[in-house]
TrEMBL record:
Database matches in InterPro entries: Claudin, PMP22/EMP/MP20/Claudin
Subcellular location: Cell junction, Tight junction; Cell membrane
Protein name (Swiss-Prot/TrEMBL): CLD19 protein
Organism, as annotated: Scopus umbretta
Coiled coil (residue ranges): none
Residues that span the membrane, as ranges: 12-31, 47-71, 91-114
Length: 139
C-alpha cells in the first residue's frame, strides 16, 4: 500500500478536481452571457459567486495536497537516515506546477467572487443613451 501522505494528497487532488468541475458548471450557468437558468442579473451574479467559491475551495485543496507532499519530501530530505545522499528526493517540476495551478485557481475564483453586485446598486436600472448630452447640437 501507499504511504498515508500520498493517499491524503491523492484524496485532496480528487476533491479538488471535483470542486473545479462543479465550479466550471456553476460558473457557466452564472455568466451573464448565457441563457441557462434565471434571467435575473442579481441571481445570475450570485450563482457566479457560488462558482467562484467552488474555485477557491478547489485551489485551496490543491495547495494543501501539494504543500503536504512538499513538506514530506523536505522532512525526508533533512532527516538523518541511512538513505544515501544520491537517492534522496528533490522538488520536481510537478510541485511548482501544482503551486502555480493552485494560485491561479484561487485568483480566478476571487475574480468571480468580485462579480457580485453592490448592495446600493440593486434595483436601479441604468439606461444607455443613444448620444451623450454634450454631443447633441441645438439649432
Amino acid at each position: 500500500t501507499l504511504a498515508v501522505h500520498i493517499q491524503t494528497s491523492r484524496a485532496l487532488m480528487v476533491i479538488s478536481l471535483l470542486l473545479g468541475f462543479f465550479g466550471i458548471i456553476v460558473s457557466v450557468v452564472g455568466m451573464k452571457c448565457t441563457k441557462v437558468g434565471e434571467e435575473d442579473p442579481i441571481t445570475k451574479s450570485r450563482i457566479a459567486v457560488a462558482g467562484g467559491v467552488l474555485f477557491i475551495l478547489s485551489g485551496l485543496c490543491t495547495l494543501a495536497a501539494v504543500s503536504l507532499y512538499a513538506t514530506r519530501v523536505t522532512y525526508e530530505f533533512f532527516r538523518e537516515s541511512t538513505v544515501p545522499i544520491n537517492a534522496r528526493y528533490e522538488f520536481g517540476s510537478a510541485l511548482f506546477i501544482g503551486w502555480g495551478a493552485a494560485s491561479l485557481t484561487v485568483l480566478g475564483g476571487s475574480l468571480l467572487c468580485c462579480s457580485c453586485p453592490a448592495k446600493e446598486r440593486r434595483g436601479q436600472q441604468y439606461y444607455r443613451q443613444s448620444q451623450p448630452s454634450t454631443a447633441r447640437e441645438y439649432v
